[in-house]
Amino acid sequence: MQTVGAEKLLELQIDSKTYGADKGARVEILREIALHLAVGSFVSLFGPSGCGKTSILRIAAGLDQDFLGKRWIAPSARIGMVFQEPRLLAWRTVEDNIRIAMEAASATGDIGEWLERFDLAAQRRQYAGELSLGEARRVAIVRALSIAPDLLLLDEPLVSLDDAVAARVHDELRMVADSGKVGVLLVTHDLTEAVELSDRVLFFGERSARGFFEREILVPRIRRDRGMVFALAGELATLVAHRKWQVPGKG
Amino acid sequence: MAKVLSLVVVVAFWTVVAEEAQSSMLPGPLAVAEALLRETRSLALPYHLACTLLRVAAAFAIAFSVGLIAGYAMGRSRLADQIGDPWLVILLNLPALVTIILAYVWIGLNEPAAIVAVALNKFPNVVVLTREGTRALSAELEDVARVFRLPWPSRLRHVVAPQLAPYLAAAFRSGISIIWKIVLVVELIGRPNGVGFVLGTAFSLFDMVTIFAYSIAFIAIMLLVENLLVQPLERNANRWRRKTA
């Protein structure tokens, strides 16, 4: 839960982000997006495909500097990221994939314990290239969590996980959120997921629409039972269906 | 087993043809084996083979290391590619004989000239393959390396090198086969030792037994290098693929 006056972690001011060839016509994908994230806050980005959610994550990660605007991130903040695809080193074992990231971050922690928590102990010495997509996704999540990140960027991390596994990953993400130490940006297509985990949900409109519509979820995560989550998600879905987000403003 | 069988068949065929021909132009396996033994005992064969192998190793090391750096630079930087590409095309298509003659004329009839001449013939091949490998490096994995702030030795070892490995294995294999072919010509033209020199001398004397003996010894060394070095390296580069393929 974000607290008033919480420590700043990330501030993005994206005036414009365009894609396209150097000389060809450029397509504007993001306009006038201002986004801030405090330590301990969990923010979900929700919107149709191609609306630029992943672009925001890439800008937040510092991977994309080709935009008009500003990015500020707390000095020495450690970033853990789960990409849309697992992006593991296929030629390294599961254990090595995690260890390499942990070593780079000088993170301490028991890899075995991490793998147990995500039901990956049996895959420890397998090459990442041999894993199923669901397993690889979990390894990518472990890789991001195991470095003890300050900022966690998640790009649809639960896609293609079966329900039981997704529930487990949910619990882990909820623990991360409850720890109050990590700022999380989650890109998702699943409103219930967003409602269940987030302090704030940002609704993005069609490509190049200005800004976003924002909804804070004030009920503490611990009190959000399934009924409440579905009700709230339903309410938000109705809002989305009426495309109210096209008018920039606060919910 | 099939390999051994095919070898036996060829030797048997050679024996029969040589028996039938009864010509000094085609000595039989026995005569060649005797010559091989004789040359080995006199240490002439090991000496000349060693000279050739040292040249191969030196030329290979130079061509591979310089070609790797140039190819990586050209794969990464458009400017480097634009500057290097015309020269690469020239070197790729330049007849080996021209580089050999130029090296001997400009550097002198000496060892460095011989090694440079061989290396220059292999170098463009390493550059081309490394450049292709570098261009094919995954941008997605580079993003991972950047987000997780992998230090460069770690990036090189865990991210870049494994992706380049199949290309380098191909460069290794094709490169070594080019070198085997070129080195003998270089020796024939301007060195007082090595297998190429011996073959040149034997050719002028129509000494077919010596030509066969040295050629066979040379081929045996090539096969040894192939089996003990090239193939294990290739296998190692592709080890992680075996189960997934």
Give structural attributes.
A: 251 residues; alpha/beta; Rossmann fold; 7 helices; globular; B: 245 residues; mainly alpha; MetI-like fold; 10 helices
Topology diagram in text:
The complex is a heterodimer of chains A (251) and B (245).
Chain A: E1 8-19, E2 27-38, E3 42-46, H1 53-61, E4 68-73, E5 79-82, H2 94-104, H3 111-117, H4 133-146, E6 151-155, H5 163-179, E7 183-188, H6 191-197, E8 200-204, E9 212-216, H7 226-241, E10 249-250
Parallel strand pairs in A: 3-7, 3-8, 5-6, 6-7, 9-10
Antiparallel strand pairs in A: 1-2, 1-4, 8-9
Helix pairs in contact in A: 2-4, 6-7
Chain B: H1 2-21, H2 29-41, H3 44-76, H4 78-93, H5 96-107, H6 111-135, H7 139-147, H8 152-190, H9 195-204, H10 208-237
Model description:
The complex is a heterodimer of chains A (251) and B (245). Chain A has a domain at 1-77 and 150-157 and 182-251: Rossmann fold (3-Layer(aba) Sandwich), CATH 3.40.50.300. Chain A contains seven helices and ten strands. Chain A has helices at 53-61, 94-104, 111-117, 133-146, 163-179, 191-197, 226-241; strands at 8-19, 27-38, 42-46, 68-73, 79-82, 151-155, 183-188, 200-204, 212-216, 249-250. In chain A, strands 5-6-7-3-8-9-10 form a seven-stranded mixed β-sheet, sandwiched between helices. A three-stranded antiparallel β-sheet of chain A has the order 2-1-4, with helices on one face. In chain A, β8 (200-204) and β9 (212-216) form a beta hairpin. The two termini of chain A are 18 Å apart. Mean pLDDT of chain A is 87; it is low at 247-251. The mean pLDDT of chain B is 92. Chain B starts with a helix and ends in an 8-residue tail after the last helix. Chain B has one domain: MetI-like fold. The longest helix of chain B has 39 residues, at 152-190.
